[in-house]
Amino acid sequence: MTQGTAIIAGQGALPGLLARRLEAEGAPFVLAEMEGFVVENPGGWPVERFIVERLALLFDRLRDLGMTRVVFAGAVSRPALDPGRIDPKSAMLLPALIPAFQAGDDALLRAVIGLFEDAGFDVVGADAIAPELVPGEGVLTPDQPSEDDRADAARAAQIVTALGAIDVGQGAVVAQGLCLAVETLPGTDAMLRWLADVAGGCRADAAGAKGVFYKAPKPGQDRRVDLPVIGPGTVAGVARAGLAGIVIEAGGVMILEREATLAAAQAEGLFIWARLP
Prior knowledge:
Layout: E1 4-9, H1 14-24, E2 29-34, E3 47-50, H2 55-64, E4 67-73, H3 88-91, H4 94-97, H5 105-118, E5 122-124, H6 126-129, E6 138-139, H7 147-165, E7 171-175, E8 178-182, H8 188-199, E9 212-215, E10 229-230, H9 232-240, E11 245-249, E12 254-255, H10 258-268, E13 271-275
Parallel strand pairs: 1-2, 1-4, 2-3, 4-5, 9-11, 10-12, 11-13
Antiparallel strand pairs: 6-13, 7-8, 7-9
């Protein structure tokens, strides 16, 4: 019997991409949308809306629909919990969740995964449904990284590893060995805009290496959720910031709209390199 998949959907194109894949396979699925977010739904697929304060009711509903597997897809910001909306059954779950709201994103996501698993659901990563989203090692574009770019990528990888160890971010920009920006809660796009508007002139040699944007999962991160993502918008931000290219951890970062992303990089003269950690 084919297992039903609940896509816990956030913002962006990933939920729709996974829905199309499951639909093409004839596999049952449903989109679950948290209140306050509007999920892209180009296929007009069925949507179950929920609030965090009533997670137990969501679990019951997903079981009634025959869903046995859960995949988290898309960006979701932290909701503000309203104690007045908590139902008695969900109140038994929240003691495990509320402390995680005071921690980093990784800690909160681990707590959420634990609740779904305790409820009997199999939690999988997006790459379990669409494995081609996560490229293996290699330069994916005609343009190649220079030796300076490779050195900057190695430095950026060290920085992201250090930041990730304290659950801060998944990306950094390094040019000529100098860290120009790091990704924090506002995300990649905000970091690249700030870099273009403020920090771009901080390179030691204006005629030297332009720098790279590096993105990777956090050390020890549960890769079933919050796997880093790049796409055409990332390419546009990197180009505007005047960087030479994008470096991602091979096997650890998803590329959405891959053909469009690589075409945009080629048009901008940028490289995209999936680098072994």
